[in-house]
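Reproducibility note. Readers wishing to regenerate the assembly model reported in the main text can use the exact inputs given here. Chain order matters: entities are listed in the order in which they were concatenated for prediction.
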Amino acid sequence: MKKTLMLGMGVLALVFAGPQAMAAKAKKIKIGFVTTLSGGAGVIGKDMRQSVEIALDHLGNKMSGIPVEVIFEDDQVKPEVGKQKTEKLLSKDKVDFVSGFIWSHVVLASRNSVVKAGKFLIISNAGTSKIAGRLCHKNIFSTSWQNDQVPMALGEVLNKRGVKSIYIVAPNYAAGRDMVAGVERTFKGKILGKDLTKWPTQLDFSAELAKARAAKPDGVFIFYPGRATNAFFRQYAQAGMTKTPLYSVFSVDSLSLPKLQQAKLQNVLGTFSTQFWSPDLNTPVNKKFVSDYRSKFNAYPSHYGAQSYDSIMMIADAVEAVGGDLSKMDAMRAQMRKAAYPSVRGKFTYGNNHFPVQDFYLRQVVKDGSGNWTTKIVQKVYENHQDVYAAKCKMKKSW
Amino acid sequence: MVDGALVFEQFFNGIQLGLLLFLLAAGLTLVFGIMDMMNLAHGSLYMLGAYVAAQVTLWSGSFLLGVSVALPAILILGICLEAGLLRPLYARGHLDQVLATFGMILFFNEFVRLVWGPEGIEVPLPSFLKGNVVLFDIPLPNYRLVVIGVGLLVALLLYLLVTKTRTGMLIRAGASNREMIQVLGVDINRVFTLVFGIGAALAALAGALAGPILAVTIGMGENILIQVLVVIVIGGIGSIRGAFVGAMLIGIIDILGRSFLDTFFKIFLPVNAAETAGPAVASMLIYIIMALVLFFKPQGLFPAKTG
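Running the prediction on these inputs yields the following structure tokens for the assembly.
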């Protein structure tokens, strides 16, 4: 009897002491990273994964002295797959943080699973207006931007450069329509025409280009990510439109430029786009990130990579702040809200909706010292710019 | 707003798109019609043609060489596929054929990813193909003119092959009554291999030509395959003439829809509604046309089968 009692007490003591002893310091920090690793968009996921590797290298694979494991999952650009993978990360791998997410529709489908599990969701790219607004949450942070900000900055650039009229061509899906709405919100000149093309299957733009040329605009505004970028620039040159300046958002970046250069599309050189970041952004963290990335992978990182690097650094900063005690959610959140981690973009703040309030730049495509095409910052367009959806988020800024 | 020059240019664009579709549809309609075979992997041959042509162009610096290597390479691949993989499927139902050829799509997509990576590759064009010819103040891209020229030439050659030669006679006979020509002692397997080979080579040609306009990427075949199936249904299964007319119709209607539908809607709708409805209806237009054709002529415009 006595023996059993002793044993029972012992077990009880362990049961009570166990979680507390465990909670004080995690043995391993697990981060689930959902991105696209297959298909044409796999090239984005590859850049993000490599940037996470650089971040882990810089951290020595440890946060607050605890080893870190990042588990990558492929969402195949499908919301249902993304949600399934997110739930697998939460319930099977028992991750402490969920990060990644390129696509707005994928993160929208996966959001609730993370929120219900009571974990942090650090979004590395998708800038959907819903999560910036109505669906904001105390445990959700973004290390990127809200979709509209980038085309809004471009609209300002057009005003400053004295562009009187533009023609708009963009794909007909959620992000495409957001981009068009963004540039329309700030551009003060005349919009001579607007074509929304079938996405993602339509890669022939002959009809749209003929209309754009006939409208005789001062400039053409486009949003064509992925493989459509090259198709558009190529056909733009073939249609004899090189004299009309082309302005783009989320189309010309470190992922598309090597391919555009391979295709010898000279008309890409000198074109303008806007973004919060560029490989040449002059901050100490960014210089280190870009040079280490370049020496390890022999290519420029993209903004997708920069944002992923920041996601890992932000998590590391929060973990350090609580000395590795991951049960202190409130303390970690308070630390994240300070945006005190070493970010590639330098100093910035978080708005009430946990989206960055940050600067945006005008970038131009140039040749670097060794002849590779890259983007260079020309000027600052917006200083400490906040997205317009923050007003729709119910959280109040208390930091 | 709508001026004559723009309409003319859009017809030009429509014809070019139509001819590209024709190159794919001509081969596929024969496979459907003569072999009674559901082949979803036709788009994969188109993709492989584009990749081989692009790769050889990058190695050699000559686009012409790229195209002329891609054609026989995919022709041989097509013949091997037909003899090795598809022949056992002829006796089976259409569902088995769909499953097997869908599996081939997945296989070839993964194959391309292993060999060339997920990014896709770029084909630099020779400078004489980069510029454009100005006709009535409209710059017509040289390259699109070349596509039109090649497309028309192939259409003419196919017409001569099918109507003027003994092989063509066998193909036509096979399309209208397969059992009869077997009974007459024709080696139907040889006709099948020939037809599939021609189809594969034409798909490769279409892929090689499309590469410098569109993008050489994984899955490029599936995108265009849907449009090609619409062309075949409209033209009538097994008919090359039907494929030509159907392709022209789809090419021109698709381009004109994309160009002028929003302007047309603005006549009687508010601007916002027209701007939303225009692209939406334009992307459905070819399917609406297909539904209409199916309603009035269920066999397509030029049905090949008589019995």
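We highlight two features of this model. Confidence is low (pLDDT under 50) at residues 18-22 of chain A. Chain A is about 40% helix and 20% strand.
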